[in-house]
Every structure is written in structure tokens, then in C-alpha cells.
Amino acid sequence: MPVSFPEQENSLKTYLNSHSDDQRQADLMGEVLIGVTLDDEVTGRVSKYHAHAGAGVLHRAFSVLLFNTGGELLIQKRSPEKITFPGYWANTCCSHPLYTKDELETVNSAGVKRAAIRKLTQELGIAGELAEDDFTAMARLYYRAESGNGWVEEEMDHILIARANVTLTLNPNEVASVQWVSRAELSDLLKDNEALIAPWFRVIAEQLLPGWWSHIDDREALKRLADKRIIKA
Question: What EC number(s) has UniProt assigned to this enzyme (predicted)?
Fold first, then answer.
């Protein structure tokens, strides 16, 4: 039987009361995410805490791949304060649309694009430099990955590509560091046995990105390459 949202709120309060050591990350666990089915149909509200704790709950997410005009991809190392996969290399920005009218909207992937703009500002300080029309929705990826210490990621990940030269102001509670990388540099990172790579980013980088990278300067070509199916990792 699904856990009701009031029950979720009670377990969240318990978590918040016991994790005052990092109040900023704990507070984010109170965000209300979008629970979905394996067909990406909305099932209801789920707290970020309940979505990631224990067995977890499948929920909607997004991954941004931001390229500059030189053709380099911006990647980030997740802060050691992150609840899941701390210190791992990942794509430019990965987070969740919230259970709000604006971010639930699915027409032209508007909701996830708005969420991406919000989180790019919050994590990387990219403010006012990207609009919804700058993003191309490329695919949806379903994956599940255990993070350890009782945490899990199970997401319907909407992958977005954008291209812009931006000014960065990192939020250290979210992002430890960033790099602009070429295809060759990313390939070397993925082959480095000592590098921690977020599981969703490895799937994207190894299975999907190679077919997209050479077309990042051609929006129409990217749109033709967009896959409407749900890809399962």
C-alpha cells in the first residue's frame, strides 16, 4: 500500500529533527516532488526524503547538459554535503521538478525546463542567461541506483541540452567544483578507475551523448535525434 503524504510528512519531520548538522540539505528533503509510473504518468506528491530513503519512490527528475559555444560540456563534482552520491562527477545540473502547476506542465517539457532554470540558478548561479526555449528535450531515462547508507535514486530522468556561454557562481553546499570538458577529456574521465561517476551520468555519457555531441550546434538536428521513448538503463 502506498504511503500517504501525511505519513511521509511525519517521517520527514523525524529526519529533519535528527539532521540539524547540515540544515540546508535537510531542508531540501522537504521539497515536494512528482511521483510517476514507469510510463511517466503522475501518481501524486512525494517528499524528496521519502523518494530517496529506503526503497524509495519513482519520481520525475531532469539532467541538464550545458555546452558552451566552443563545444565543451560543463560537468560538476557534487558537494560532499549531498545526500546521494556525494563527491561524484555528474552532468551540469541534475535535480527534480516540483509538484507545482508550473513544473508539472508537460507541453513541450515546459515543467522540467522551468525546474532546470530554477536549479541552475540555485546550484551554479546561472541567473537570467537561459530561457525555456534554449533547452532541447532529448530523451527520458529510467534508472535505479543505490547510493548507500539507506539512500536510493529511482528516477524518470528528462535529459535536456542547452548551449550558452554563462557566468558561474557556485553554491558550495551543492557543487564542489566544475569543469568544461571536450569529448576526449570526458572520455578520459570515464575511463579513470579512480574517478567517481554518478550512475545516471555514466549511462548518459556512454550510451546517449556520443550520438548527440557532434550536433550540438544544430538545434534542428538535435530535435530530429530526440527520442520520445522511455529508455531503461
Answer: 5.3.3.2
**Residue 73 to residues 32, 37, 66, 76, 209, Cα–Cα distance (Å):** 30, 31, 6, 10, 11
pLDDT of residue 28: 73
Phi-psi region of 106 (alpha: psi -120 to 50; beta: other; left: phi over 0): alpha
Angstrom distance (rounded) from CA 21 to CA 28 = 14
Residue 179: closest CA among 76, 70, 94 = 76
| Burial (CB count within 10 angstroms: exposed 0-12, middle 13-18, buried 19+), residue 124 | buried
Q: Which element (helix H / strand E) includes 143?
A: strand 136-148
Nearest in space to 154 (alpha carbons), one of 77, 222, 61: 61
Q: CB–CB of 99/34 below 8 Å?
A: yes
Cα distances from 174 to residues 84, 111, 180, in angstroms, run: 11, 22, 18
Q: Residues with catalytic annotation?
A: 94, 155
- What separation, in Å, do the N-terminal and C-terminal C-alpha atoms of the chain show? 26
**Residue 11 is placed in which grid cell?**
517521517
Confidence of residue 29 (pLDDT cuts 50, 70, 90): confident
Question: Bigger pLDDT: 85 or 13?
Answer: 85
